[in-house]
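Reader question, answered in our methods column.
A reader sent in the components of a multi-part assembly and asked whether the whole thing could be modeled at once rather than chain by chain. We filled in our standard form and ran it. Here is what they sent:
COMPLEX SIZE: two components
ENTRIES:
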Amino acid sequence: MTACIGIIGAGLIGRAWAIVFARSGMSVCLYDVDASALGQVRDGIRQSLQDLLQADLIEDIEAPLSLIQTENDLAHAMRGVEYVQECGPEDIDAKRRIYSELESVVAIDTVLASSTSGIAASRFTNHLKHPERCLVAHPVNPPYLIPLVEVAPSPDTSEAAVNRTMQLMEQAQQTPILVRKEVQGFILNRLQGALLNEALRLFRDGYVSAEDLDKTVKHGLGLRWSFMGPFETIDLNAPNGVVDYGQRYGPLYRDVDRQRSDDDPWDTATLAALGQERRSQLPSEGLAERQAWRDRRLMALMAHQRHIDTK
Amino acid sequence: MTACIGIIGAGLIGRAWAIVFARSGMSVCLYDVDASALGQVRDGIRQSLQDLLQADLIEDIEAPLSLIQTENDLAHAMRGVEYVQECGPEDIDAKRRIYSELESVVAIDTVLASSTSGIAASRFTNHLKHPERCLVAHPVNPPYLIPLVEVAPSPDTSEAAVNRTMQLMEQAQQTPILVRKEVQGFILNRLQGALLNEALRLFRDGYVSAEDLDKTVKHGLGLRWSFMGPFETIDLNAPNGVVDYGQRYGPLYRDVDRQRSDDDPWDTATLAALGQERRSQLPSEGLAERQAWRDRRLMALMAHQRHIDTK
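And here is the structure of the entire assembly that came back:
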């Protein structure tokens, strides 16, 4: 028997999750408190499925579509559901209310997973009778194109809930990783933040243009990271592996770490200057088209990786 | 008339540069003080060219091979050369000696570019009569697979030398970026260092395994960076572009920045633990084979990107 999945919130992330589960043959019930939000859900999902079909990433549209239902009554929506993916607002009080309501309508062992990109699970589940089945399952947007999911339990979360979530994500062809202890921003956004903080300072202090900084990553640093990650990259970049690498290059990176200033790289003036350079390269009215381009590039990259892996 | 290029040092980087210039039709003279090092140069280059041919990245082996000469007499090697790519040891004193010798055998306007990955140009050229034609042109290894080149002038470098180097790199199908002011580690290694420093701390402090950290990048963060770079990525990740993004997520990244501890992430114990996990995934005797796998994956990725760009 395949899993039955409940999704809370029919915004962009909720709809993307519906595609993830349904394309792997799971039944999905997509709930939103706002009935009008549910009206156009099916059209949006159909369009995304068509894009995936065109990129050779799925074989059929009708089968996954037939597995997705929408519902605006919470108790109806959660009937028989064994895993809930919550995609509510990024607000602790709103989430606490949602989890209280959820607890009253689901079975005692239903896993409740949040898509939050920043809030630790304990902050919106420590008031529940059964916080042990709650955790974070943080996707990258959109999860049907980017497989990584950060599974981040709270101190209360049971091993069973963690294992069930990891298994389910693998069944859904996602790539789950385990965040072993609660930490703000989890792993992905902490790594992104570390690089962005340095990037903004280099841009702000006049060492490099925004365009050249992007080139440094897309034509340099980002190529190996797209199939190896940073630790394997350095492990293969010294004759005797990563310890050898650390002895050679550790002093340089230690200096970079110490030279880092304490000022705020996200100040208004820096953002305005970056915005100005970006808008001179890509006017505001071109953003939507470029986002569609990004998704096509991502789909082509995923198709390329799938082709390579099966060779 | 095509450019005539001199290369100092017939190690891995020097040989890789020879391939870069020769595949674009430029004549290359590869110099090494050690005549025995030159013996196997041609076989190594032929092998790399064969790999590129197999990956559909070049059309012919013999034409580039015929453009590469080797020489162990510096004055002979540098005759008629208009651009020198120096690939000597990463040692300031050694480089200062090399540049003094070079100055005595090349024309007054020959550009002298260093492949150094860490040393600012002023530190090994400020004793010369003509430091204005000296700069750094830092490649990523190997440059015939990864196109980025960091062009980093010293305060003495002339605009003409910078422009000549940028043009030459474009002719050679590389992607040059300009580092506007001297800075340790230039741009690429400062960005890599910022991410690695955070990655090592997350690993050391038990938040994540090394394997899961690599997955976070290769199945998440690194995918978009491989064709967009970090600034364009965030510019497309908020409805109204990068300023909007900064208002939404700046507070999170600012917190990440403030939470960063001052301890050394490259300490012996952390490196040993990372080495242990890496070696349990990939024993030492498998490193060379995995490096060959990495190069095949890189070649396939470059072929994929070329295919996409011409569509």
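What stands out: The longest helix of chain A spans residues 287-309. The domain at 188-309 of chain A is CATH 1.10.1040.10 (N-(1-d-carboxylethyl)-l-norvaline Dehydrogenase; domain 2).
Send us your own complexes using the same form.
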